[in-house]
Amino acid sequence: MLQSSTYLLVNFFAVIICFIASFDKRVQFYKYFGIFLISSTIVAIPFIAWDVWFTDMGVWWFNTDYTTGLIIAGLPIEEWMFFYCIPFACIFTYYCLDRFFDLSWANVFNNVIVFITTIVCVVAALLYHDKIYTFVTALVTLGAILYLHFIAKRDWLGQASFVFIILMIPFFLVNGVLTGSGIETPIVNYNSQHFLNVRMLTVPIEDAVYGYSQFMLNVYFFTLLKKKYSDKKEIKSALTE
Amino acid sequence: MNFLIVIVVFIAMEGATWVIHKYVMHGFLWVLHRDHHDHSTDGPLERNDLFFVIFAIPAILLFYLGVQQGVNYLFYIGLGITLYGMAYFMVHDIFIHQRAKVIKKTENPYLLAIRRAHKQHHKHLGKEEGECFGFLWVPIKYFKMYFNKNK
């Protein structure tokens, strides 16, 4: 019984502390729950589609001993929840750190970050175009970073990247368990033909890179909608005065 | 040996930067570089920033070919170019143009000389007039200026 809830518990523990802390009066993140739901859904749609596609192709598969058994479009329900639980913890962390600390010093590295990401992703995509997980991850990350820097012209790439580095600690805990750290067999298994097989502990390096692009896009849509929401509120209060 | 290649490329990049800066950026691609001088573009990003995508291309090709040939000298040339690029951003964005308010009050003569020379370069808003196209290496007179002052 407990074993079949493993993945569910991973999601639960990822989210629970952040969820409770959202109601702290210094934080008041609960005000943005609606905005978070919309922004994370926008990001989740393409990423879940990617997940469904790769699961269907056998790039990775799930050990159903660790899941409750409800499967939608080839993905266990826990995997669907993953696309809300993990972004929630990440966005909550970003929101708090940004609110209580001045992280703008990290933004001087924007150009360097984009420069290095471009080189690494293009070289990886060229070299490993036959390994589909590596290839798609490199292209998605490249696209996300170039879009944010040159088209959306966001100036927070440095500070978001800094927060992502901090988030690597819980990331390793969560993804570690999913990929087999501390449990008998992995919950998520990978076909070694389709990725580099470079693992940090048990976590494939592609997971960290893809997590980076997913995180950056979540920050983008969340901050975008949050700003729209607060602008609207300002106009409203100005009109009623 | 590989380490040597990286160092030599890094140094050679200073020369390449001078040539590219003087004859390409202030030449036929002035259209991209102009807003770095006259600030004609609004916002945090300059059209000039597109140059680093252009400069990433040779590094990408060298890394790719180098790895394909079993991580040979081409890879290390690419590494030298990349490291120079990183040094460029660090010094140019952070120190000279003060995108971050750090190391503002330095008394290091080398850093002061770089900043002075770059200012000299920026004094000219037009394409044709120009001086001090180099970057990490600047004319001796600027070094002298600060070394003498310290005496």
TrEMBL record, chain A:
A molecular-function term among this protein's GO annotations: intramolecular lyase activity
Entry-linked InterPro entries: Lycopene_cyclase_dom (IPR017825)
Keyword entries, A-Z: Carotenoid biosynthesis, Isomerase, Membrane, Transmembrane, Transmembrane helix
GO cellular component: membrane
Residues covered by the Lycopene cyclase domain: 5-97, 130-224
Keyword Hydrolase: no
Pathway info: Carotenoid biosynthesis
Coiled-coil blocks: none
Stated name of the protein: Lycopene cyclase domain-containing protein
Organism of provenance: Aequorivita ciconiae
A Gene Ontology BP annotation from the UniProt entry: carotenoid biosynthetic process
Compartments in which it is found: Membrane
From TrEMBL, chain B:
UniProt KW keywords: Carotenoid biosynthesis, Membrane, Oxidoreductase, Transmembrane, Transmembrane helix
Residue ranges crossing the lipid bilayer per the database entry: 6-29, 50-67, 73-91
Family label: Belongs to the sterol desaturase family.
A molecular function GO annotation: beta-carotene 3-hydroxylase activity
Plastid recorded as keyword: no
Name listed for the protein in its UniProt record: Beta-carotene hydroxylase
Protein origin, superkingdom: Bacteria
The keyword Membrane is annotated on this UniProt entry: yes
GO process terms (BP): carotene metabolic process; xanthophyll biosynthetic process
